[in-house]
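Lab meeting prep.
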Amino acid sequence: MRIVPAVTPLTAPFWQAAREHRLVVQSCGACGGLQHPPAPLCRSCHGSQLGFRQVSGQGTLYSFTVVHHSVHPATAGEVPYVLALVELVEGPRLVANLRDCAVEDLVVGLGLEAVFEDLTEEVGLVQFRPARSS
């Protein structure tokens, strides 16, 4: 069983895009700033002309922690797992699970790519794995 995030009008475009295996972040129509998580106002110019823009899904490992103690019954079978702070090449950072990587291979600056897990008909989960060579 996976934890399904609460979808709000503010976050619905993010979760729906993830369900479509696309990564989007909030974009300001006034200043062009990108931000995550979604907010009612732009963090750069405080504008309200906000929409969502698809991004590459490429980034680097900015920081991480290895979770050894489950804090929710749904994650009991997942421990240990890696919770990563990913810096997208477009700038924003987001928190996500890191998959397909041994803990001993983790290093800040590791190239990552987004992968997706379908949770429901409306919600997909964005996760990351080490970037594969082209």
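Slide two material, second protein:
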Amino acid sequence: MGWAVVEVDERGVSTLIACGCIETDKDELHERRLARIATEIRALFEAHRPIKLIIEKLLFTKNQTTGLAVAEARGVVLAVAGALGCAVEEVGPKQVKLAVTGYGNADKQQVQEMVKRLLNLNAVPRPDDAADACAVAMAGRGC
């Protein structure tokens, strides 16, 4: 699960504070994986004190097993945000692409290149989930 902390100044310029991924062991019990996500998300909230969580809307997928696991992980993030009183905004994939590239049908490479440019980075954040989280963070209203 990718995450990013992006700060926006009064001029609307975005700065990447931190980004990364929460990774869990696929062989670990599902409930333990969700608990680890909750623990790490809470630690990120406590470290960075965000005023708003921007989260990507869940789209239905052909693989129902994967879709359910993603929905549960997303629910953990929303629960932590709610428990800490953080505002939440959901953005769709087209909204993310439009906000970052100006084109709602941009491909992954275009989005990643614009993330690098807009955040004035030397390289695209890695892994891909971290770069995606940067794009989602920049797609929120007021961000």
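Talking points for slide two:
The domain at 2-139 is CATH 3.30.420.10 (Nucleotidyltransferase; domain 5).
The chain has one domain: 2-139.
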